[in-house]
Amino acid sequence: xxxxxxxxxxxxxxxxxxxxxxxxxxxxxxxxxxxxxxxxxxxxxxxxxxxxxxxxxxxxxxxxxxxxxxxxxxxxxxxxxxxxxxxxxxxxxxxxxxxxxxxxxxxxxxxxxxxxxxxxxxxxxxxxxxxxxxxxxxxxxxxxxxxxxxxxxxxxxxxxxxxxxxxxxxxxxxxxxxxxxxxxxxxxxxxxxxxxxxxxxxxxxxxxxxxxxxxxxxxxxxxxxxxxxxxxxxxxxxxxxxxxxxxxxxxxxxxxxxxxxxxxxxxxxxxxxxxxxxxxxxxxxxxxxxxxxxxxxxxxxxxxxxxxxxxxxxxxxxxxxxxxxxxxxxxxxxxxxxxxxxxxxxxxxxxxxxxxxxxxxxxxxxxxxxxxxxxxxxxxxxx
Amino acid sequence: xxxxxxxxxxxxxxxxxxxxxxxxxxxxxxxxxxxxxxxxxxxxxxxxxxxxxxxxxxxxxxxxxxxxxxxxxxxxxxxxxxxxxxxxxxxxxxxxxxxxxxxxxxxxxxxxxxxxxxxxxxxxxxxxxxxxxxxxxxxxxxxxxxxxxxxxxxxxxxxxxxxxxxxxxxxxxxxxxxxxxxxxxxxxxxxxxxxxxxxxxxxxxxxxxxxxxxxxxxxxxxxxxxxxxxxxxxxxxxxxxxxxxxxxxxxxxxxxxxxxxxxxxxxxxxxxxxxxxxxxxxxxxxxxxxxxxxxxxxxxxxxxxxxxxxxxxxxxxxxxxxxxxxxxxxxxxxxxxxxxxxxxxxxxxxxxxxxxxxxxxxxxxxxxxxx
Lengths: 383, 371
What we know:
The structure holds 2 protein chains of 2 kinds.
Chain A: H1 7-21, H2 24-35, H3 42-53, H4 72-86, H5 92-104, H6 107-118, E1 124-127, E2 143-146, E3 150-157, E4 168-174, E5 185-191, E6 197-203, E7 209-221, E8 225-226, H7 232-243, H8 249-265, H9 271-299, H10 305-330, H11 348-361, H12 366-377
Chain B: H1 7-23, H2 26-34, H3 41-49, H4 68-81, H5 87-101, H6 104-115, E1 121-124, E2 140-144, E3 147-158, E4 165-172, E5 175-182, E6 188-193, E7 201-212, E8 216-217, H7 223-259, E9 261-262, E10 265-266, H8 271-299, H9 305-330, H10 341-353, H11 358-368
Parallel strand pairs in B: 1-4
Antiparallel strand pairs in B: 2-3, 3-7, 4-5, 5-8, 6-7, 9-10
Helix pairs in contact in B: 1-4, 4-7, 5-6, 5-7, 7-8, 7-9, 7-10, 8-9, 9-10, 9-11
C-alpha cells in the first residue's frame, strides 16, 4: 500500500506542473475560449499542439503512433495537471476514439488517425445521443445502410457537443434491426465536412454550445467502419470506461481559491463557515481517493467498472455541492455573474453552479450509473 | 501509488475473518451485552494466541512488529464480527502511548503482558463536560511526597470493570498529566453506564486515589500532547472497526434485497433499492479510503491529524446513513433483536460519538486548513 506517487512519478508531475505554470497566456486563452462556451478556438489548438509536441496527450500509446509507451499512471498525472490548470483533461480523440482505434482499428486507420491525434491536430466529436436515445443508448435509430461499396447514413444526433470544431464524428449508427437492439449498432468515423451533414447549435443555460447533427443521404466509404459491424455498442461501453477517470485538479484549484478568499475576507472565524469549508475539504479528499482507486486498478490492467462509476457520481455531485455551498457563503452576492461589478471571485462559482448540472448528466446520468453500481458492483438482481 | 493490501496483509485479513466467523458469532455479541464483563475471556485468550494484542508492538516486547495499516485491517475484521471487548482501549488507547512515551521499565512491564493477553487496560479521559480538549480535564492530581493523590469523576471509561490498569488523565500543578493507576486501588468507584450499544462504559470516580510518582506516563504537566495522539489513534482505530461493520451491513442488506420477494420480484430489483445500495457502497468506500490513507500516513511516520479527522468525521456520518438505509431495506424484520441489523445500528452511534463526531473533527480540519 502506498498513497503517494513514486519519486519518478513525482518528478514527472513537477515537470508537467512547471510546463503549465510557464504558459500563463496559453492557459488563460484556453480558459477564455472554453468557458466562453464555444469550445476549441485558436488558443486551445495552440496549447494542444504544444502538449502534442511533448507526447503528453497520449503518453501511454506506442511510440510509433506518437506516444511514449509510459504506464497508465503517467496519463493520469497529466490529466490531473490539465484539470488543475485549464479545466479540460481529455480530448475525445485521445481518451475515447483513439484507444478504440488502437485496439480494433485497421492498420490504415491507425496510421491515418493516431499520429494526428497524438500531435493535437485533430479532435473527434461523440455521435451517440439521439432524441430517443439518451440513457437508453441502444435505442439509437440513425441508419447506416450497406450499399455495397459505401454506407448511406440518414438520421439525427443531438447533444453532440464538439461537432462545430472537431474534424471527425465518432458515430454510432444502426446497421441492423434484427435481434437485440444493442447488437445492431456499428461505429464509424465520419469526416464532418462530408456533404449531407448539417450542424445546428443548441445553447445550454450555462452558455455552452452543443449541437444537433442531421445526416441526409450521407455517403461514407466502407473504410469508415471501426472494428466489426454490430459490435459498436460493446466498443462504446468499453470506451466509456476509459473516459470515467474523473480528475479532481480543477476542483482542488477552486477550493484553494475559495480558501484564500475566506481567509482574506475574515469570514474564516465564523463557526458555520468553518464547518462548511471543512466538509468540502473532506468531500474533495474522498473525490481524490476515488480517483486514485480507479487509477490504481487501471494501472494493473483491470477495468474498474463500478469504481469508475462511483468516482464519476461522487465527483460530479461534489462539484454541485461545492458550488452551492460557496454561492450560499457569498450570500446575495453569490448570484452575481462574471461581468457584474459586485461579483465575488469573478462570478466563477455562479457559473459552476449552473455548469455543474451538465456534468451530472453527461457520460451517464447519476441514476444510470447507480444502476450499474448496484447490478454490476453489488450483484443486485435486474428483475 | 498502489491501494492494494500486501500478501501478508491479505493473509492477516483472511485468518482474522475465518477465525472470527468461527469464534465470534452474533449470539456471543448479544450474550456479552447481557453479561457483567462485556467480553469473553476465552475469545480474548485465543485472540492473544494469534498475536493480535501484540500486533503493533516490536518483537522485543513479544509483539509482531506490525504497523497501523495492519492494525486497521485486523480491526476491520473485528468490526465485521462486532467483537465485543477492550481491544481498542487496551492496545490503542493504552499500549501505544506506553510504547511511545513510557520509560524502559514501563514498556518492559506493560507491553509483553498486553501482548500475551494477560493485561487489560483502559483510558479514563472524559469528564462530565464531555469536552475532548484540554479544558475538559478537571480531575486533580496533588503531589504528596512520593505519591500523587487523584480525585475526580471520569465518564465513558470503557471496560473499567475488567481492566487491570487505568490510564487516568488529571491536572497536576504543572498541568495535564497521565497516570498509570491499578484499577483495584482503594478510592476507585465504578458504575456501569446504560448505553445505546450496551458496551460496558463506566463512570469511574477517583476519590483520593494514591499512585507513586513512578507511575506518571510521559512528563508531568506535558500530558496533553500524548492525549492528542491517543485521541487520534483511537479515533482512527474506531474508523477501522466501523468500516468492517459497515461492509457487513451492506452485504446483509444486498443479500436480503435479493431474497425478499414483494410484488412478485426481489425488492433488490427496484431501482429505489438499488440506488440506496449504491449510495451505501460509495459511503463505505469513502470511509475505507480515508481510513486507510490516514493509517498509511501514520505507518510512514507522516503528519496525519487532518486525514484522521477527515476519516472520523466521514466514517461517523456515513455509518449512520449506511445503517439507516440498511434498516429501511430490511424494513420490519430489521427492527427485531433476533436479526443482526440493530446490533450494527446501535454500535454505529457509539462509534460515531467516541473520540469526536463530525462537527468536532471538522473544526480540527478548519484549523489545519489555516482558518
